[in-house]
């Protein structure tokens, strides 16, 4: 006899972006993941029903999590992180973003109007054209560290790119003081961020030295911690040196292997000279205009992953090579670059001089100086000596005058007509 065979309706009955399930004598359609039926039913057989793309990014909360960017696609979506954040590989199955452990472009001098104009490509005055060119060239290095989160950051390329910025001495000399300090801050932060980004790469070398014309970097990754008690790491760049104790490494807030680096900038001291020194916290600053000051070292920079912001229990020791031999009448000052003071100024807080010879000066600092440490030397002039003697003499005279008035008022045994006259003369 005759037999009836099931007709497979799935060959042509379901719309695009749908899956068809054949059943004996019938069928039903379901939309593919990322799509929803236009009639709102989970499964359907009616003709004219369409599977529409679901915009997962419009749903709340965002499937990508905080600090992220959700991009909808046909039947799916993709996630990325906003500036200053990167995908968290150690997170849960869901996508998440974590903050990049260094500064990016939006974090460096964010309130500087001239720098902001350079970034947006707005029309600038001709005299600011060179400044914008160097700022944007430096920011491109910083962008490589912040945006190429999956690519290895090359310290050699960083050093060569920034060395080309530093060597344009004739251009730097034409900048205003505010432009010079702003560009210097961007250069210093770019070196720091690029170095920290290089430490994030698991395949990074344990130790490497990078040399460019105006920049030298020595970096070291400490994977196994301190193997010996009182162990000290020495990092050298050009003629300068940084010593960091193992106890400081152990204080690091770094979640993985700790990376440390030491950077020495050649020629940068000619731009950031003694005219940027400002330190109202020390008595020496009160007589700054009476001192002959000069920059007498290269600018250096200490870097460490997971650095504590409130200082270390033990000091970091920097040994800086003097550009000119120290004279007997000169006194070195260890200074650091403070971006919070007028866009960038040299300050002596946080460091003290341990030792000073003709060729080198040793500074002891309570933290890794994030930007730079330099030395300024001053000659005590005759004008300053007279200034100091006269003010000390005035203070002593006033103290003696107060004592004389107190004596005439309080000692009854010596009161007479003469002391009465002396008292009024003192008061006058």
UniProtKB/TrEMBL annotation:
One of its GO terms (cellular component) is plasma membrane. The chain crosses the membrane at residues 384-411. GO terms for biological process: adenylate cyclase-activating G protein-coupled receptor signaling pathway. InterPro entries: EGF, EGF-like_Ca-bd_dom, EGF-type_Asp/Asn_hydroxyl_site, EGF_Ca-bd_CS, GAIN_B, GAIN_dom_sf, GPCR_2_EMR1-like_rcpt, GPCR_2_secretin-like. It is found in: Cell membrane. PROSITE patterns: ASX_HYDROXYL (PS00010), EGF_3 (PS50026), EGF_CA (PS01187), GAIN_B (PS50221). Keywords: Cell membrane, Disulfide bond, EGF-like domain, G-protein coupled receptor, Glycoprotein, Membrane, Receptor, Repeat, Signal, Transducer, Transmembrane, Transmembrane helix. GO terms for molecular function: calcium ion binding; G protein-coupled receptor activity. It is a multi-pass membrane protein. Residues 213-381 form the GAIN-B domain. Disulfide bonds join 10-20. Residues 6-41, 53-90 form the EGF-like domain. Its main location: membrane. PANTHER family: ADHESION G PROTEIN-COUPLED RECEPTOR E1 (PTHR12011:SF449), ADHESION G-PROTEIN COUPLED RECEPTOR (PTHR12011). This is Egf-like module-containing, mucin-like, hormone receptor-like 1. It comes from Neovison vison. The gene is E9PD45.
């Amino acid at each position: 006899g005759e037999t009836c065979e099931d007709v497979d309706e799935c060959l042509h009955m379901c719309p695009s972006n749908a899956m068809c399930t054949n059943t004996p004598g019938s069928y039903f359609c379901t939309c593919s993941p990322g799509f929803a039926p236009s009639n709102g039913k989970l499964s359907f057989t009616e003709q004219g029903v369409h599977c529409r793309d679901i915009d997962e990014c419009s749903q709340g909360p965002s499937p990508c999590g905080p600090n992220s960017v959700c991009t909808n696609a046909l039947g799916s979506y993709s996630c990325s992180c906003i500036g200053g954040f990167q995908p968290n590989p150690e997170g849960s199955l869901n996508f998440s973003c974590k903050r990049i452990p260094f500064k990016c472009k939006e974090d460096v001098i964010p309130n500087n109007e001239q720098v902001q104009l350079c970034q947006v490509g707005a029309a600038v005055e001709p005299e600011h054209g060179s400044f914008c060119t160097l700022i944007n060239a430096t920011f491109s290095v910083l962008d490589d560290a912040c945006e190429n989160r999956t690519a290895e950051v090359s310290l050699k390329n960083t050093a060569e790119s920034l060395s080309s910025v530093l060597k344009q001495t004739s251009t730097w000399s034409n900048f205003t003081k505010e432009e010079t300090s702003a560009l210097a801050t961007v250069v210093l932060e770019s070196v720091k961020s690029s170095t920290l980004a290089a430490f994030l790469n698991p395949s990074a070398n344990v130790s490497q030295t990078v040399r460019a014309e105006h920049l030298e970097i020595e970096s070291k990754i400490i994977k196994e911690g301190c193997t010996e008690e009182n162990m000290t790491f020495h990092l050298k760049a050009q003629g300068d040196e940084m010593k960091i104790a193992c106890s400081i490494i152990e204080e690091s807030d770094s979640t993985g292997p700790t990376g440390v680096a030491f950077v020495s900038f050649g020629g940068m001291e000619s731009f950031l000279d003694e005219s940027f020194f400002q330190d109202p916290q020390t008595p020496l600053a009160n007589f700054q205009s009476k001192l002959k000051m000069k920059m007498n070292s290269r600018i250096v920079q200490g870097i460490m992953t997971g650095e504590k912001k409130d200082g270390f229990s033990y000091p970091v020791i920097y040994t800086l090579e003097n550009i000119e031999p120290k004279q007997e009448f000169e006194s070195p000052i260890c200074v650091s670059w403070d971006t919070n003071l007028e866009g960038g100024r040299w300050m002596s807080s946080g460091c003290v001089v341990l030792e000073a010879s003709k060729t080198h000066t040793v500074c002891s600092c309570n933290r890794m100086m994030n930007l730079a440490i330099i030395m300024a030397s001053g000659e005590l002039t005759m004008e300053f000596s007279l200034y100091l003697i006269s003010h000390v003499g005035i203070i002593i005279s006033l103290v003696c005058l107060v004592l004389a008035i107190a004596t005439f008022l309080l000692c009854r045994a010596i009161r007479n007509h003469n002391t009465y006259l002396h008292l009024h003369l003192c008061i006058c």
